[in-house]
Amino acid sequence: MNTESAEKYLASVLLCQTDEPLTLLHLVGILFQIMQMIKPILISVTNAIRAVAFLLKRQVVAEIAEVIAECTAKHLSDTLSSSIVNSIVVAIAPQVAAVHSTAQNLQDMLEKSTKLYDSLEWEKVEERDDLKTAAEYIKEAVDMLYESIEDCNNSYKLLTPSLEFTQDRCDNHTSTRRV
Predict the structure, then answer these.
(1) Residue 167 and residue 179: Cα distance in Å, rounded?
(2) For residue 34, which of 22, 7, 58, 52 has the smallest C-alpha distance?
(3) What's the whole-model pTM score?
(4) For residue 38, what pLDDT is reported?
(5) 3-state secondary structure 69-84
(6) Helices (H), ranges, the chain
(7) Which of 139 and 27 is assigned the larger pLDDT?
(8) What is the Cα–Cα distance from 122 to 89, expressed in whole angstroms?
(9) Of the candidates 26, 47, 71, 148, which lies 20 to 30 Å from 133 by C-alpha distance?
């Protein structure tokens, strides 16, 4: 007898249902039902007990295998996880260091670029201010020149009649002296 034939026999004598899985609780219930059967133990009772024994053996083996599988999986997972993590860390450490170094270099270059930009902006502002100041000085100088030329022009206009008169007198005086 094997487990398959044992399940079929128990289903045929109505001690279990064919569509339900057999658990330890079901098997214990089947043994209880067998014990309640008539007292001269019939061959069918003996066969039922044998069938339950085979099924219990299979169930116990399955549960032991499941416990072993779970323990093995947990142990492998714990062992492999730390090993895999260590391997990954060792493998990517140089790349992480290179990325960190590059990031530091970029940060330094950004700081230098920012300082250079600020310096150029300040020089540009100073240059604009210098140009503005120079333009103001030139404007003042031109204004002063213009005023000076106007003053000269006004003086010339004021002095022209007097100069003409003086010239005429000089001319007259020279001509009278020659005669």
Answers:
(1) 18
(2) 52
(3) 0.33
(4) 67
(5) HHHHHHHHHHHHHHHH
(6) 3-12, 24-35, 43-178
(7) 139
(8) 48
(9) 148
